[in-house]
Amino acid sequence: MPKQAQFYLIEKTQADNALSATEALACNLAADAWRLGKKVLIACETEEQALNLDEALWQRDAEQFVPHNLSGEITNYATPIEISWQGKRNAQRRDLLISLQNNVPDYAQSFNHVIDFVPAEEERKAVARERYKLYRQLGFEMVMEKA
């Protein structure tokens, strides 16, 4: 099975809560993947962003709950969704990387499926184009989706 990098084109900037439209979509995609039995790593740019996503996932209604933890948290069992940030990541193997980082994470090649985003803002769009090129150079099959 070829490696796949799936880019979502984001058309709006803000979601209905404290998250950006990109962050809200990342949470929903992680929840969908978990329901399909996948183990997910959400790679945030900063610890603050990771804490915001963690809080947003805890605020979901009970029927929308997704088991998750922040990298470095001590848990009795490995949770299906880990939220990391630059320089902080557990070593557990994951099926899906959802990247919110400005650069392609060093460990991206260890994943068969990566989800990334093309934000609405022009300057962030240019950075996303560079990530797109790098994933293609790394041998990923490229897929574009509208959010």
Automatic annotation (TrEMBL):
GO molecular function, one term: DNA-directed DNA polymerase activity
One of the GO biological process terms: DNA replication
Pfam families listed in its UniProt record: DNA_pol3_chi
Signal peptide bounds: none
Top-rank lineage group of the source organism: Bacteria
SUPFAM superfamilies for the chain: DNA polymerase III chi subunit
Name of the molecule in the record: HolC protein
Organism: Mannheimia succiniciproducens (strain KCTC 0769BP / MBEL55E)
